[in-house]
Recover the amino acids of this structure.
């Protein structure tokens, strides 16, 4: 190895090299070949990608740039082709790939759909950095008549990277060599030279719409507002993908039935909220958590707010129910906001966690109403730049979501009623002599104010708080 301090470190040999990519076309060909080869080489990954698209679980083969002559004499050459065979059935998909900032072309897609129909294939799969605004929907509108006998699917590079990470780190790959190959694909896709970039830009209309909302001059008919609403929808989907990548689970955006069936309903709802309240809203569902996480980008207050709601215990006094929540948040930042909702109350009792730790009574609803639910929220400053990076809007949304999950959501559990106890029978003679114990709270929890120090001592002493010796 060179001892020259100014010499560059030697570059390690890789199965899929990132060096030497000199054009967008070369970048696209290398990404296509690498992906299709790994789909073939790693059985579990190939099945994870193709099975949800309708392929059987069987032997997978992949090809690059196969030529086809159409009925009108025109030759077309898709970027790739995937075949999965099981018994007598063969499932075939044409693949169209774009990398970097290149977007999918409608004419190309429709030509490939025609090939699928003529050849009796099954579908067309498009891959690009475009993120479908609604899961299952394609980012490019094509002639619906072409979809009658040919299916069209879209996978973003971010989705493929997420699936690769989930397969390698969480679902597992049986063969060590195949696991290493999949790791090489992950390393390649994560490199900036691969062109498989994550969501990085809010679009050209971002600054104008952001300022119009802040000044109260945004109109519902503004086309720029519709563009920003679409970008926000993509960002929420990407944030869910990215968090799922870290957690090793399937995190998805929450959409209502009407929004799933008609994208314009969702976009119109975002625009309406921006015009009326200066806020863009979204929801994310994380498996095995207490509830959906709400994301709000307040363009007027320039804040990103993440929140989650959970039901309060159905038994116990108000302070007992509040202490139940505080015990779960004993390591959470004191600047998190708590909202306590009383039965049939139109407004909540709201206070910062640090203050509630000192005085739980701050959250008790007026008229001592029964507490039915809590909402925990984290607010962070909003970035203003359109592109990803320092002080960017995109990074502030992603960082707030990550912080909120790690500081709050992963610590929360739903309340479970205590297990029913058998009543012990006692004789009449012993009844008169037995001393009555003080009644326990209905929820089986202490009603004393929450004390983090006492909780720490309790956990380190087998559940008992140490008592001082009498003098």
């Amino acid at each position: 190895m060179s001892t020259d301090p100014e010499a560059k470190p030697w570059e390690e040999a890789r199965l899929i090299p990132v060096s030497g990519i000199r054009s967008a076309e070369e970048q696209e060909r290398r990404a296509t070949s690498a992906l299709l080869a790994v789909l073939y080489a790693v059985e579990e990954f190939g099945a994870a990608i193709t099975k949800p698209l309708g392929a059987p679980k069987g032997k997978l083969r992949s090809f690059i740039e196969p030529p086809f002559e159409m009925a009108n004499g025109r030759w077309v050459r898709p970027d790739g082709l995937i075949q999965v065979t099981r018994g007598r059935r063969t499932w075939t998909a044409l693949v169209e790939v774009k990398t970097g900032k290149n977007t999918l072309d409608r004419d190309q897609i429709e030509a490939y759909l025609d090939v699928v129909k003529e050849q009796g294939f099954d579908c067309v799969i498009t891959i690009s950095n475009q993120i479908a605004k609604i899961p299952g929907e394609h980012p490019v509108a094509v002639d619906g008549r072409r979809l009658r006998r040919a299916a069209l699917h879209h996978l973003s590079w971010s989705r493929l990277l997420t699936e690769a990470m989930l397969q390698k780190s969480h679902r597992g790959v049986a063969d060590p060599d195949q696991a290493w190959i999949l790791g090489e694909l992950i390393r390649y896709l994560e490199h900036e030279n691969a062109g498989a970039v994550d969501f990085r830009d809010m679009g050209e209309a971002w600054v104008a719409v952001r300022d119009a909302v802040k000044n109260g001059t945004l109109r519902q008919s503004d086309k720029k507002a519709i563009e920003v609403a679409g970008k926000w929808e993509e960002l929420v989907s990407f944030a869910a993908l990215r968090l799922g990548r870290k957690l090793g689970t399937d995190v998805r955006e929450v959409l209502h039935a009407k929004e799933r069936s008609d994208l314009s309903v969702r976009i119109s709802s975002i625009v309406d909220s921006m015009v009326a309240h200066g806020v863009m809203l979204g929801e994310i569902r994380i498996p095995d958590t207490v509830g959906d996480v709400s994301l709000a980008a307040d363009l007027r207050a320039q804040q990103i707010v993440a929140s989650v709601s959970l039901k309060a215990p159905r038994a116990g006094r108000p302070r007992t129910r509040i202490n139940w929540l505080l015990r779960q948040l004993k390591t959470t930042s004191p600047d998190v906001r708590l909202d306590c909702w009383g039965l049939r109350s139109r407004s909540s009792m709201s206070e910062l966690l640090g203050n509630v730790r000192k005085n739980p009574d701050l959250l008790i609803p007026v008229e001592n109403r029964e507490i039915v639910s809590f909402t925990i929220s984290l607010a962070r400053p909003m970035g203003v730049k359109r592109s990803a990076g320092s002080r960017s809007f995109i990074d502030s949304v992603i960082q707030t979501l990550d912080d909120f999950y790690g500081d709050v959501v992963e610590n929360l559990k739903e309340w479970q009623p205590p297990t029913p106890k058998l009543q012990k029978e006692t004789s009449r003679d012993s009844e008169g002599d037995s001393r009555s114990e003080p009644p326990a709270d209905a929820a089986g929890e202490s009603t004393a104010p929450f004390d983090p120090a006492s909780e720490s001592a309790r956990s380190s002493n087998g559940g008992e708080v140490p008592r001082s010796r009498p003098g």
Summary: Residues 206-411 form a domain with the BirA Bifunctional Protein; domain 2 fold (CATH 3.30.930). The first strand starts at residue 59 and ends at 64. The chain has a mean pLDDT of 86. DSSP finds 14 helices and 14 strands in the chain.
